[in-house]
Specification:
With 245 residues, the protein is of the alpha/beta class. The chain is built from 6 helices and 12 strands. The strands form 3 sheets. A 5-stranded mixed beta sheet has the order 3-2-1-4-5, with helices on both faces. A 5-stranded mixed beta sheet has the order 10-9-8-11-12, with helices on both faces. Strand 8 and strand 9 form a beta hairpin. The chain is globular and about 55 Å long. The structure holds adenosine-5'-diphosphate (ADP), the ligand CC(C)(COP(=O)(O)O)[C@@H](O)C(=O)NCCC(=O)O and potassium ion.
Length: 245
């Protein structure tokens, strides 16, 4: 079985693939210790190798790889930047500066359908990338994700503070907030969705009328109801399998 790891700035997403390609187990862990303890609790799972993508620092990523490698007695293959992969051409002036999660999400998405596309990843950061029908990456945008938006307010104001338990149910409702938690949660939610809507609107300028919109990442459900958005939770893992076959 293969262990796949997507190390973002907030969470380590992981899954175990059977030889058939079916998912045997999956989860999200906050640390290597947490990851190894989740894996040790699995029954009937025999991991033979691992492939990993990381947007963490090189030092942190190397430590993570060697920690997993020595705990599970396996090789950990790491996805590395490339100027082109899976029909997609990296659009950055310095290709190795493009976030590997953005890159693999685009590569994974392009295998689903070789069409022009907008790839939106809603994690710690929200990223939007444009790829034309020939696989040319036109570049993209990076802005703070929903957790960072709310954190900026709670950190830099005197009177905005509320607990995580107050957050659920505050976002879906568009009406003006009548409490601090409502006002902030709905404000950040609308800000994020307006950003996405503006990108989708601009996409036809870059890609023409025919393009597909993919979403992924921990907060992708925030835009589930937006017209044309197709959520594919494992886009990064799909690209990872191309990068580390
Ligand atoms: N247990 C959790 N810890 C941290 N973030 C969580 C958790 N559960 C859900 N989230 C949400 O998921 C987001 C992280 O999404 P993810 O795609 O994993 O980001 P990243 O790739 O940057 O680590 C957070 O910004 C937060 O809003
Ligand atoms: C933009 C990101 C911070 C997104 O990371 P995430 O929110 O998935 O943790 C990451 O892709 C990154 O560090 N990129 C390098 C900078 C760039 O892509 O230009
Ligand atoms: K990510």
């Amino acid at each position: 079985m293969i262990l796949e790891l997507d190390c973002g700035n907030s969470l380590i997403k992981w899954r175990v693939l059977q030889v058939s390609g079916d998912v045997a187990a999956q989860g999200a862990s906050v640390s290597a210790v947490d990851l190894l303890s989740a894996l040790s609790g699995l029954t009937g799972v025999k991991i033979e190798r691992a492939r990993l993508v990381s947007v963490r620092s090189d030092l942190e990523t190397e430590e993570l790889c060697s920690c997993i490698s020595s705990a599970l007695f396996i090789d950990v293959q790491r996805a590395l930047p490339a100027p082109r992969l899976g029909g997609v051409v990296n659009g950055y002036l310095e290709y190795d500066r493009l976030g590997m999660d953005r890159w693999l999400a685009m590569v994974g998405a392009f295998q689903l359908e070789r069409r022009a596309m907008v790839v939106i990843d809603l994690g710690t950061a929200v990223t939007v990338d444009f790829v034309d029908a020939e696989g040319g990456h036109l570049g993209g945008y990076i802005c703070p994700g929903i957790s960072l938006l709310r954190q900026q307010l709670t950190t830099h104001t005197r009177r905005i503070s509320y607990t995580a338990e107050e957050i659920p149910m505050m976002q879906g409702e568009p009406a003006p907030g009548r409490s601090t938690v409502q006002a902030v949660e709905r404000g950040c939610f609308l800000m994020l969705r307006s950003f996405v809507a503006s990108q989708v609107l601009a996409a036809s300028d870059y890609l023409g009328a025919d393009f597909v919109i993919y979403s992924t990442g921990g907060d992708a459900t925030l835009i589930d109801d937006m017209v044309g958005v197709r959520r594919v939770p494992d886009l990064v893992f799909r690209g990872l399998a191309i990068a580390c076959p």
